[in-house]
Write a structure and sequence with these properties.
alpha/beta; two-stranded antiparallel sheet; eight-stranded mixed beta sheet; 2 domains; Rossmann fold; 20 helices; about 10% strand; about 50% helix
């Protein structure tokens, strides 16, 4: 089929390819959340699942129902309905099935995309291409000439940035005129050891040979448009409803914040300066366990020597400062306490994840390990060390107390069953009872009143019990000062309602792959902001064809 050039051009102007240099960056969940946000902007969206494994079908949990309709291999001549499945109002999933054999699928899909151009032009305001991970010419790069825009999804890790930079370089070689934007998932701000968590191109060019680097001119046109913090609802690996897992992850995150702040304060009290200061702080953050101060200091010095080399070797005075610093870290009782609590949480989380699921068909499975005692000790040591005299550390310790109190509630079958009763379930073909993620996703996106009423009913049941438990924990530790109070001296109940709503949100929506849209949710707000920024830039770059359908 010979498609008119003007049709291809018109479709291309409204097409965004979503790719990544490596797997695990959240590319498919990003594609899906962009599609949902665009659809809510009254745009008709076509989401093309070009991944051979059809990950979007898994995210949407559609295999058990409409997925069967699309199991036959794709071939030319079929009606458009054979390639498309309506998922939500104004959002269609296209090619929602595993693709055929590798040696055939790329060419066939390319031809199908080419032949379906008139349908795409007629039906959709925006097209999103969810590409396979990696830099395969046959399965990924071959689709870039169809797109005017490329969204590269990455994480704040050196390997992810290097892979993303390599992918961008390959994309520019295929389509030099493509407009490139960067979407940062699991984002944490900061610069550590010369690694800028924003500057993907700089981090890539540092390791790439000269001939493969992204030029200054090329990088000048690349823009970061979204910074999405980690959120359990977007973590597909955490696909079971487990309040214990969620709150333990929260405790681990809070302890990490405490540790990083403590490391900052200890290192800042040394006489280290410049890059040695920054790199030392980074190394300790990344290697928190100090079993033997001498061996640890030796490893740290080797690390620093490897970075500075012969051009700027460490002086004896700096080495002395570093050895003294490591000894101080090794004897700091709060630092050791936080380490012990983090180790305990890691062991407990590993056990919980290995259990496959917290809820069995017969009843509730309890975690075998209890990390509460080491966390309690951290709170005691925070009070003893006096670090809570500062507002930031005091509020962080207060947050840890809140999570600890919630974790204690999970020893109650009654509390656990509230989560079990809230969660929608379905039966598989063999009769096994599993979480109905598709139904839960639809309830959230359709703003199902009954579902949301049940959610807030859950909050109302938990809140008074939670306040009682938290006050009890604070009294037993003699740490009432860590509670959050209003200016008049009364307990700040609004703050605790917000915290509880946020925590329960993460518990019940974990692993759905979509941001639910609650106004208080940081990740959801960041996704919406990034999606609208992308839409604005597309229009600014000439995508005037992207208009709201009537």
């Amino acid at each position: 089929m010979n498609v008119p050039a003007e049709t291809v051009w018109a479709v291309r102007k409204k097409t965004v390819a979503v790719g990544s240099g490596k797997g695990g960056t959240g590319k498919s969940t990003t594609s899906l959340n962009l599609a949902i946000t665009f659809a809510r902007q009254n745009l008709k969206v076509g989401l093309l699942d070009l991944d051979p494994l059809s990950n979007l079908g898994t995210v949407l949990d559609i295999e058990h129902s409409i997925y069967k309709k699309h199991r036959k291999p794709l071939k030319a001549g079929l009606p458009f309905s054979a390639y498309m499945e309506p998922v939500l109002p104004r959002l269609d999933l296209i090619f929602p099935n595993p693709k055929i054999q590798k040696e055939e699928r790329s060419g066939l899909l390319k031809n199908l995309v080419d032949s379906l151009m008139p349908e795409f032009l007629k039906r959709y305001d925006v097209l999103l291409l969810d590409l396979p991970a990696g830099i395969s010419a046959e399965e990924n790069l071959v689709f870039l000439p169809f797109a005017e825009y490329l969204l590269v999804v990455t994480n704040p890790e050196p390997t992810a940035h290097v892979s993303s930079g390599g992918y961008i370089k390959a994309a520019l070689q295929i389509n030099p005129d493509i407009n490139i934007f960067i979407w940062h998932n699991k984002y944490k701000p900061g610069i550590n050891a010369g690694f800028d968590s924003i500057n993907v191109i700089q981090n890539y060019n540092r390791y790439a040979p000269a001939e493969l680097r992204v030029s200054e001119k090329e990088s000048g046109a690349i823009r970061s448009i979204a910074f999405i913090p980690h959120d359990p609802s977007l973590d597909l690996l955490q696909n079971i409803i487990s309040p214990a897992i969620t709150v333990q992850l929260k405790m681990a995150e809070t302890l990490t914040i405490l540790m990083e702040k403590l490391i900052d304060e200890i290192v800042e009290n040394t006489e280290l300066t410049g890059n040695v200061f920054l790199l030392t702080k980074y190394y300790i953050r990344q290697n928190r366990r100090i079993e033997d101060s001498g061996a640890y200091a030796a490893d740290l010095l080797v690390y620093l020597d490897g970075l500075f080399g012969k051009s700027d070797p460490l002086g004896e005075k700096e080495k002395k400062f570093i050895r003294k610093l490591v000894r101080e870290m090794r004897t700091n009782f709060l630092y050791l306490s936080i380490n012990k609590a983090l180790d305990s949480l890691e062991d407990s989380l590993e056990q919980l994840f290995d259990e496959k699921r917290l809820f069995s068909v017969q009843g509730l499975m309890r975690p075998k390990l209890n990390p509460e005692e080491p966390v309690l000790q951290v709170l005691k040591d925070c009070l003893e060390s006096g670090v809570t005299s500062g507002a930031f550390l005091k509020n962080t310790a207060g947050l840890l107390l809140f999570y600890l109190a919630f974790h204690k509630l999970l020893t109650s079958d009654t509390i656990l069953r509230l989560f079990l009763l809230f969660t929608p379930f379905r039966k598989t073909e063999d009769g096994t009872k599993v979480r109905d993620r598709n139904r839960q996703i639809r309830c959230l996106l359709d703003r199902d009143k009954h579902y949301h009423d049940r959610y807030y009913s859950l909050i109302k049941k938990l809140f008074p019990v939670m306040l009682t438990q938290m006050n009890r924990a604070a009294k037993s530790l003699s740490c009432q000062d860590l509670l959050y109070y209003q200016a008049g001296g009364s307990l700040n109940q609004q703050a605790y309602i917000r915290l509880l709503t946020d925590l329960v949100h993460d518990c019940v929506n974990t692993g759905l792959g979509i941001a639910s849209g609650y106004k208080f949710n940081i990740a959801s707000s960041a996704i919406r902001k990034g999606a609208l920024e992308l839409l604005s830039r597309i229009k600014k770059h000439g995508g005037s064809e992207i208009t709201r359908s009537r």
